[in-house]
Amino acid sequence: MPAKKLYLLLITLVLCQCAIAQQEVLVLKGGTIIDVTDFGNSERDISNATVVIEGGRIKAAGSASSVKVPKGAKVIDVSGKYIVPGLIDCFGIINDQAYANAYLYMGVTTAVMTEDNRRGKIDWTVNPSPHKIILDAYWGAKSKRVSVGGVENAGFEIVRSWSKEEIDHDIDSLGKAGVKVLLVHYAVVPAQLPAIVAACKRNKIATIGELGLSSYREAVQAGIQSFVHTSRYSADMLPDSLRKVYSTSPFGPPARAYYEYITGQKNIADDPKLLELSKLYRDHRIGLISTAGMIQYPEMEFATNPWLEPIASIIDERTIEFEPLDKSTGKPKNPSPVRQHAVPALVEIDKVFAKQGVRYITGTGTDAFGTLPGISLHNELAMLSHFGLTNRQALAAATHNFSLLWEWTSIGKVETGRDANILVLDQNPVTSLKHLKAISLLIVEGKIVDRNKLMQKP
């Protein structure tokens, strides 16, 4: 090798080694790592733990006796505190820097975002920010919106359904564009489901079903991994005549008919179709995304006004695209009486699912129906607890369940090799989910984020 090339190679190696040496190693020492594995059914917390963070990743995590503190590391004593993974919101949006700050302040370190006419546009320029993941919706057909019962765009008509070749092309293109979650939507027919699932698996895209022309049973059998909205994933319990109309008109009068139907059931918890559906979801390890913070939470006796959370002070109400809550009460400004009347039945439906052992993952629907970034994830957790999940199971729904149901193995757990998205809490979240707000230290991709600075209006 010529001397000049050898010299340049040596210089490059020296510079690379210097860069590695200058990387700060952060160590959390003395806290308790909360176990969120096995859907929150495992209780193997690690007390007096050591967590080593380097290059945005967890280099080691375990008991102090098993993890060595590297020389020169910055050591933070977190004795008496509790270490959990950063929280995940799998259905929301970041419209501006205030939204990003609010997510982070409330401990949400990963946000799955979608653009639509209710939520507006994503702002990709925000910094600091949770890890941003793209969700796209797939209708499986060229369709047109239609008015139903005098309500504009309440339903849809199919112009032409896509072939398998078109589905493969579309989803491969989405994968190349960075889409990591696909909302399999109303116009998808049963015959298309296998091709959609296969294409998503090939592209490592997680699937959420919000279905109309396909039943939820058909989607389960095809391999869709999760479903969103209580009022959607319980639709298979409807009488066939109502289910058929609801399939193409999910927003108009048929939606009202759904609410009226479930409200009219005297013992909805004993409904044979609902029980059958819950066992189907349980046995196939489906993840449910209730988005109960949108409709149900404001009507609960234990509900608090989200606008009273400290971080809400930096959010401009005008940025909320769809039905912001009244700032003085935290209640809907123009509530739908039919929808409000159906809340107890909606809650009862999810109680049935929870009792049967169906798994949940957390998504808030932010910012539709006045839900607020970060804040509403805690409201969602309160609803999961109300459904009957233990605090640990609810915490798992916001963290490690994504690893088990969506195969997201780089986040969701404080474990060697995962991304260093970590919350250090002053109090134990297993004893109360409210303790998830008592964040002593916020670490996003290995970096400590100053929560006080997040409170400053952008």
Can you offer a commentary on this structure?
The protein is of the alpha/beta class. It has 2 domains: 3-84 and 416-454, Roll (Urease, subunit C, domain 1); 87-406, TIM Barrel, CATH 3.20.20. The protein has helices at 3-22, 97-105, 164-176, 193-202, 216-222, 230-233, 240-248, 253-263, 272-283, 292-295, 337-355, 375-387, 391-397, 401-406, 451-454, and strands spanning 25-29, 32-33, 49-54, 57-63, 74-77, 82-85, 87-92, 108-113, 131-138, 141-148, 151-161, 179-184, 206-209, 226-228, 287-289, 359-360, 422-425, 439-444, 447-449. The strands form 4 sheets. The chain has an 8-stranded parallel β-sheet with strand order 7-8-9-12-13-14-15-16. Strands 2-6-17-18-19 form a 5-stranded mixed β-sheet. Helix 3 runs parallel beside helix 4 (193-202), helix 8 (253-263) crosses helix 11 and helix 12 crosses helix 13. The longest helix has 20 residues, at 3-22. The radius of gyration is 23 Å and the shape is globular. Residues 1-21 form the signal peptide.
Features:
single chain, 458 residues, alpha/beta, Urease, subunit C, domain 1, TIM Barrel, 2 domains, eight-stranded parallel β-sheet, 21% strand, globular, disordered N terminus, Metallo-dep_Hydrolase, Metal-dep_hydrolase_composite, Metal_Hydrolase, signal, Amidohydrolase-related domain-containing protein
Which structural class matches the secondary elements? alpha/beta
CATH class of the largest domain: Alpha Beta
Physical arrangement of strands within the biggest beta sheet: 7-8-9-12-13-14-15-16
Report the principal-axis shape: globular
What is the second-level CATH architecture of the largest domain? Alpha-Beta Barrel
Number of helices: 15
Radius of gyration: 23 Å
Biggest sheet details: 8 strands, parallel
Q: How many separate domains make up the residues?
A: 2
The CATH fourth-level homologous superfamily of the largest domain: Metal-dependent hydrolases
Beta strands, count: 19
GO molecular function, one term: hydrolase activity, acting on carbon-nitrogen (but not peptide) bonds
Protein name: Amidohydrolase-related domain-containing protein
Signal peptide: 1-21
Keywords: Signal
